[in-house]
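Action item from last meeting closed. Structure (173 res):
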């Protein structure tokens, strides 16, 4: 009986550590988001440009979350499905980027290289690029952390990883 109580106590301690880790990661992402917004306002000095920069960062975060989902499947079946989906999406995105983004940029750079590199050197464009990179990396790391290390399948599968009944009610006290 004591072994079972120790196992339950150890499991509750593990659950608590996972929740603390989750809140620490979410808190740090929120802190860096707020810090990014403040820095954007200090650099750009215009709320409309800051709003655009936040939108660009949100798009980067969306792609980061999607990439994090593809990189960390829960099981072999999900890995098989995600590999097919990711191959299809990678083909579509690569073709779209080459046709709509890279080709016009290269054409513009060939016509007037000085104006092209001056455009890239503008502060608001640099802030937007950095905002997208920060959003991508932050959401990628958060998604990867949640799926790989915190094992949310543990909560979704009824704790079956720990030898308990598959359909057991989960109490998160």
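Sequence:
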């Amino acid at each position: 009986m004591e072994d079972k109580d120790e196992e339950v106590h150890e499991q509750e301690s593990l659950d608590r550590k996972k929740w603390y880790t989750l809140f620490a990661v979410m808190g740090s992402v929120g802190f860096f988001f707020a810090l990014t917004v403040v820095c954007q306002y200090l650099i750009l000095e215009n709320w409309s440009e800051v709003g655009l920069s936040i939108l660009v960062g949100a798009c980067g975060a969306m792609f980061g979350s999607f990439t994090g989902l593809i990189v960390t499947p829960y099981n072999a079946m999900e890995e098989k499905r995600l590999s097919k989906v990711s191959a299809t999406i990678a083909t579509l995105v690569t073709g779209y980027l080459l046709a709509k983004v890279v080709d016009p940029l290269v054409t513009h750079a060939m016509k007037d290289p000085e104006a092209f590199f001056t455009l890239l050197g503008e502060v608001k464009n640099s802030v937007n690029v950095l905002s997208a990179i920060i959003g991508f990396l932050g959401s990628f790391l958060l998604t990867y952390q949640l799926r790989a290390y915190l094992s949310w399948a543990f909560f979704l599968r009824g704790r079956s990883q720990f030898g308990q009944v598959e359909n057991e009610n989960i109490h998160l006290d």
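Note appended to the action item: The chain has one domain: 2-160.
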